[in-house]
Amino acid sequence: xxxxxxxxxxxxxxxxxxxxxxxxxxxxxxxxxxxxxxxxxxxxxxxxxxxxxxxxxxxxxxxxxxxxxxxxxxxxxxxxxxxxxxxxxxxxxxxxxxxxxxxxxxxxxxxxxxxxxxxxxxxxxxxxxxxxxxxxxxxxxxxxxxxxxxxxxxxxxxxxxxxxxxxxxxxxxxxxxxxxxxxxxxxxxxxxxxxxxxxxxxxxxxxxxxxxxxxxxxxxxxxxxxxxxxxxxxxxxxxxxxxxxxxxxxxxxxxxxxxxxxxxxxxxxxxxxx
Length: 274
Description:
9 helices, 274 residues, two-stranded antiparallel sheet, 10 strands, Spore Coat Polysaccharide Biosynthesis Protein SpsA, Chain A
């Protein structure tokens, strides 16, 4: 079984690179897709020094979807069985790689498009949990099944790229699941906590531009399959309430949300150009 990995960079810190170096050596091949506007060769040097690493400059920020799509093209060309996708700020459980390989060797593995790692909760029960969608970081994509779909949708640029990919697998009847007790370290946005009607809520505190992409892309996806994407539609409504009640820079965030929805209705996707 050949397992490769890929990570998308965007102006990474030395700590980001150190975390990636800690696990990149575990894979037969490891692709580094650098979306940085200004590449820092000194920063990425420890990673590029690994003999299994291929460094690919994207020539500026082309979006996470384009970078991941290229990473999977490399995986296909190298005849990999599985390709791990990671964010630069995620940490990987190196000590669990042997157990992960056992899950990827299941007799029914062809039924699965993604075997992912958990990123939330504290449950330690050893089980595989099927879900409609999952985040991109910590995913082992079944390359054989990936070849059956169109692949990462570049026009989304960033945000909900993961949900859309899972929808493609759902359409062809392939499963998405995560290993419950094996976790990556991952942070969504710049989270903080708040209390809403007596309940604990997490605030992502994304930038206005990130909210633009989120609401634009989710609007497009919901129009394409209302039943499958009703959950993210509901989450977006709740997020507007959180912004109004708790987050800073409300006016600009709401302005960019409106702009995102307007662009979605006009069919204007891709990178935001102002």
